[in-house]
Design a protein that fits this description.
This protein is an alpha+beta fold and 159 residues long. It contains five helices and nine strands. The strands form two sheets. Strands 5-6-3-1-4-8-9 form a seven-stranded antiparallel beta sheet. A hairpin with a 2-residue loop joins strand 5 and strand 6.
Length: 159
């Protein structure tokens, strides 16, 4: 079985739902190694490409003014629609908690300060959390104020 590592943006509510229900329904946006990612970094390797996809996902959340919370999910290839990728952006199917390898959280969430990402233009510093720490990450995400426009719907996972 071929798996694809995808980075799935999550709002605090989606993260709490993943904890409580152990799954999130798809389709939903995700970020993965795609043809455009490989082409942009032709001399790279799988690890570099995955890091690029992770950073693109984090930057997209930052651009929305949303707290940076990502689930690194290993999905089967048939659960990932990369037929029309925009950079690393793809569509993914259902996300089941047992398929989540880790959680990646921006300094904005860790510190509770949305301005903590200021000055991190090229690469965002992300903290790694094991899925056994999901309750702690939910608490951090819920405490993090957002800088997004309150008139816009919650965007991270478009759930």
């Amino acid at each position: 079985m071929v798996t694809v590592r995808c980075y799935v943006p999550l709002s605090a509510d989606e993260l709490a739902r993943l904890q409580a229900e152990r799954r999130l329904d798809g389709p939903r946006p995700g970020y993965a190694v795609t043809g455009p990612v490989r082409e942009e970094r032709a001399a790279g390797d799988q690890e570099e490409w995955e890091y690029a996809a992770l950073q693109e996902a984090a930057q997209a959340l930052r651009a929305q003014g949303a707290p940076v919370v990502l689930a690194a999910v290993d999905l089967t290839a048939d659960q990932v629609d990369a037929s029309r990728p925009e950079g690393a952006r793809v569509q993914v199917g259902d996300v089941d908690l047992p398929r989540v390898a880790a959680l990646h959280v921006g300094d904005d969430v860790v510190t509770g300060d949305p301005q903590a990402l200021d000055g991190q233009d090229e690469e965002l510093e992300l903290s790694w959390y094991d899925t056994t720490e999901i309750a702690h990450v939910v608490d951090l995400a819920r405490a993090c104020p957002t800088t997004s426009d309150p008139s816009q719907p919650d965007q991270p996972g478009a759930d």
